[in-house]
Design a protein that fits this description.
Number of strands: 14
Structural class: alpha/beta
Strand content: 15-25%
Largest sheet: 6 strands, mixed
Bound molecules: zinc ion, fe (iii) ion
Radius of gyration: 19 Å
Mean pLDDT: 97
Strand order of the largest sheet: 1-2-3-4-5-6
Helix content: 25-40%
Distance between the termini: 37 Å
Low-confidence stretches: none
Shape: globular
Length: 272
């Protein structure tokens, strides 16, 4: 499987997925803007074969209509499936998905499975793409649920929902690549320095990511194994995080859900 992150807006990534590097058949994840996608498809001689959507926010769906129009003008006989969460309003959606659904895009060998991950929005879903019979690691496309060293804001869901969603994602195989929809890593790591102050892995990863950003490169994909080591939102029961929360709030969180709620509130007002 071959993946590529296209930068969009200020800090969004629109992911392109192909079965192999030399295969033109392309799936697009969360096209908030059509222009960078069309540019990449035309530059690479690629074919648009499907759109995967994680949630309804405009920076994830805003380019769907233009992409479908562009595709229709080029190949009117080849409609593009638009997969998206059943519980949300997604423009152009042709396939409504729920937790546990699975499918294989036409002509692909890769298998896509769907996880419900409510929290950022109520209907938010994530996709896990696995290559059958190959050693390639699974690839997670998690929209605005899990970020490297962070998690999405709770616009619609509760801390308990986000906690369960992150828990679900953390149970994926450690080598699963984490392909999130925003480049928030440096700001998240700045917060992780405060929320998990004894964690040397955070410091080391911050140095790596500063170097990548200085070269204009994405800090993604991450992996589930790495996130379990550096992401405070996946480390709500670790003594270092609990202690930092106790210092911040004056007493210990009563459980992991409250720890997550407090981390999220702290991060919302955090100025590195
Ligand atoms: Zn969003
Ligand atoms: Fe977003």
């Amino acid at each position: 499987m071959h993946t590529e992150a296209l930068a969009a807006f200020r800090d969004n990534y629109i992911w392109l997925i192909r079965p192999e590097a030399d295969d033109p058949r392309t799936l697009v994840v969360d096209p908030g803007d059509a222009a960078p996608v069309i540019e990449a498809l035309e530059r690479g001689g690629l074919e648009l074969r499907g759109i995967l959507v994680t949630h309804h926010h405009s920076d994830h769906v805003g380019g769907i209509a233009d992409l479908l129009r562009w595709q229709h003008d080029r190949q009117p006989g080849q409609p593009v499936p638009v997969w998206g969460p059943a519980a949300e309003q997604i423009p152009g959606r042709t396939q409504a998905l729920q937790d546990g659904d699975a499918f294989t895009p036409q002509g692909w060998t890769q298998h896509v499975s769907v996880l419900a991950v409510p929290g950022h929005t109520l209907g938010h879903i994530a996709y896990v793409v696995t290559s059958a019979g190959q050693n390639a690691p699974p690839a997670l496309f998690c929209g605005d649920t899990l970020f490297s060293a962070g998690c999405g804001r709770l616009f619609e869901g509760s801390p308990a929902q986000m906690h369960d969603s992150l828990n679900k994602l953390s149970q994926l195989p450690e080598n699963t690549t984490v392909n999130c929809a925003h480049e928030y890593t440096l700001s998240n790591l700045q917060f992780a320095r405060a929320a998990d102050p004894m964690n040397a892995r955070v410091v080391a990863h911050q140095a790596r990511c500063l170097a990548l950003r200085a070269e204009g490169k994405p800090t993604l994909p991450s992996s589930i194994g790495l996130e379990k080591q550096i992401n405070p939102f996946l480390r709500t029961t670790q003594p270092g995080v609990v202690q930092a929360l106790e210092q911040h709030r004056g007493h210990k969180p009563k459980d992991a859900v409250q720890a997550l709620a407090w981390l999220r509130e702290w991060k919302n007002d955090f100025k590195g």
